[in-house]
Amino acid sequence: MPQAGDETQQAPVERVHRLRLVFAALAVTGLFGAVIWRLFTIQVLQHESHALSARRMRASVEPIPAYRGDIRLADEVIVARDQVDYQVGIDPKIIPRDKLQTVVKLVCDAAGKPAEHRRERLLTALARQAAGGESVSLAGEVSRSLVTELREALERVLGDKDMRGIIAEPRPRRVYPRESLAGPIVGVTDAEGRGVEGIEKSLGPYLSGRGGRREVLKDAPQKTRIFKVGSLEVAPVGGYDVYLTIESTLQAIVEEELEAGLQRERASAGLFVLMDCRTGDILAMASLPAYDPNRYGEYPEPKRKERRANRVVESLYEPGSVIKPFFAAYALEQGIARREEPIRGLIAGPVTWDGGRQARFGKRRVTDVHEHPDMTFEGAVIHSSNIGLAIVGMRLGKPGILDALRRFGFDRPSGIDLPAEASKEPWAPPMRWTPIYSATSASFGYEIMVSPIQLCRAFAALVNGGHLLRPRVVDRLVRGSETIRFPSRQVDGQPITAETSRHMREILRRVVEEGTAKWLKIEGFEFGGKTGTSDMAKGGYAGQDYLASFEGYAPCDDPRVVALCMVEKPRAHIYGAMVAGPIVAEVFRRMFRIAAETKLAMLEKRNRGGR
Asked: What is the CATH T-level fold of the domain 248-292+310-610, as seen in this structure?
């Protein structure tokens, strides 16, 4: 039997055990209470905060690109558009290591990549697989049809689960289906899709559209993307399609004839612009050498710099004799001269001339190619007499010459919707005005700097009744049912009256019939124009490099178009009538479907046949 002392000793022990149990129960209860309170805090009190954090870990906002609008010619020919290609890659964490080489080889070979590229991509994929890294790009600019074929081939190598490691993301890419056709007008975009030349630049905000965005959820491993229904989504808005006034057939004719002319004359560069003289619409525009926008980045920097400029809009020239009709028209308009008036009757100031090829204007000597002793005012234009127009320039003086240039728009931009238009006060630096030297020089196209587009629209005013029109190369913008039209026939002034314009048409017709451009005459088809040849000065007029020009209108009885051609540094001939004139005549002949040839072409055929 236990003794009373034993019971006395066991009582404290039992109390200690009970206290320990109580403390343990309280500790467990407190722990569970803390856990329950923490769960309550997370799930109830801080629910929104943690839910937002979880969403942020699983969700992201993904941009949706907007496709850039097309650029189309007047007859719907597409010259620029976005093409959807694919960037194909792999996620090396998902592709089994023993199949990685087969997958990389299959994709790279199908995309036409060289062996060096394939090896480099495989090594990158293996390294990232070992490090648990991100995806590896294998090929870009892969077509949709090739992506479909690749998927079918890869499915035979990989299972459904492993196919999740194949990535094919659509990427819009700017392409130019007609290559260099109208290249300097259309322009080009950079790697980020921003316009850097031509219409791509000047109408970039309209072409580019507005990108969209959508919320994307991912699973726990952050691999599978789920587009959440009803989540944040802003649809992309595509850019406007731009319709130009350029006609593809005429553009092709102009480029063909200009290129042939440059080769024939062994010239370094040239330009051509064809304009509807009734509306100001540009029907064709060429600047050579040009570039293929698809290969813009492949040109070496010096060559790209040479080819990128649109000379029609961006260049300034001392134009030579093609400026003479404007001073003649101004003199007629102001009553300073009459068409049949002898040029001798207009002599003013210290001028000495006996009717020969040379004349003295103060101490300066002015020379003509031929003698015209009985020259009339209109004869001075028809035969492009420097002496005759210098006499007119002396009569006009600085106020008249400046006023004529301003009336015809040579002192300001033409307003054409193309970037980088060159414009300045039309005086060639570092020249300063002198009463005799400058008056005579300006009258036959020196000490004056003008752009070809200024010259073309001014020439249109000579023959269209005297209306100075703003040239237009963009007709309209279209997006869905929305259309924005660019106004046609915007008149910026009237430098001469309809009567003076009628006189100038007749004078310019006679330039081709009997004057400096008589070898361009086409039997049964009448057109008018003016020749020009100027020394392209480099620190002085060395007589080595010339600019040969011809401006023309057609047909004579009802002018529809004007054309300007300029050829830089020709080597076979130098005169505008022999270099630029035949190019314009051939364009007119093909445009109006005339079977007959120019007198010059027939003479050349006859000479070739005689050899």
From this structure: Beta-lactamase (3.40.710)
